[in-house]
Design goal:
Length: 64
């Protein structure tokens, strides 16, 4: 399986659909380093959104 990376304009508020649809990685630079409350808060926000999105992600059918 080839990993899928979501790149370009990724922010905590728009990363969930990418994860739900199969992104294995999120590439975020500006939204982390330029976050008004600092990079730590940005990463925490990403983690929160990604954690929720992973719960909604369909699980693969490995029996097929």
């Amino acid at each position: 399986m080839i990993p899928c990376v979501a790149i370009g304009g990724m922010k905590p508020e728009n990363c969930a659909p990418m994860v739900e649809h199969g992104a294995d990685f999120i590439a975020a630079i500006q939204s982390v380093w330029n976050h008004p409350k600092g990079p730590r808060i940005a990463v925490q926000a990403f983690n929160r959104e990604i954690r929720q999105a992973l719960k909604a992600r369909p699980q693969p059918n490995l029996a097929a």
